[in-house]
Design goal:
By secondary structure, this protein is of the alpha+beta class. Helix content is about 50%, strand content about 15%. The strands form two sheets. It has a three-stranded antiparallel sheet with strand order 2-3-4, with helices on both faces. Strands 1-5 form a two-stranded antiparallel sheet.
Length: about 260
Amino acid sequence: MSTLAHLQKELQRSIVTGNTALARDIAADGVDIAERVGVYATAYRLRLIDALAANFPRLREFVGAKPFDTIAREYLDRHPSQDVSVRWFGHRLSELLREHEEFASQPWLAELAQWEWAIAGAFDAADAAPIEVHALHIAPDEWPRLRFNLHPSARLLCLRTDAVSLFRDGATSADESRPGRDLHRPQSYVIWRQRLDVRFREQSDDEAQALASIGQGGTFEAMCASLCDWVDAEDVPTRAASLLKTWVLEGLITAVIST
């Protein structure tokens, strides 16, 4: 490795890790290079902490600025940024909160982070034109083999806490925390984008399973089979048709593929 390439690599490592001791070998002409690198390292970390705050505003509001700063610094140490854009910094924050000694007893915090990341991801996802209802005018014998593409923004989540309420309502006040809670039973949600508007709603268990089947590349026949776990066999065709029409009208389906 050339001297210049080595210096560049060490400078990058010093800034990313915050270990300015790595910069001591770069010192020249009596200039305190380590101190100067420390300025850049501090600014770099602060920028990433700001990025996390921008990506998880409700979480920061709920836990408070100082605790969030602690979370952000630990996240930065455990999971350094790997992307050129700070927009994609934070994808493992919910994982850290689930494992964290201080926050693991509050599972709604991890799910709030998971929810905010999904909402942001839906907004930034690629666009695709949804199909119209007339695209479902297909010969009956083709239906079992049909597959459907979900909109790229579609996100399917199943949560065990009231994290969505925390996201929707926010903190009650600066000095009054609103405690999260576990739900009596898990609740499924679908998140997607219509033009520039991110939407979400609750799903029944049968719809959640059916939409997951479609999203995983399952055929219409496989989707109907999944509904048999929840609906009487004679009612499956009607339920499947109703769900599919709802998804099309909401803009969740972007293609019908005959295989």
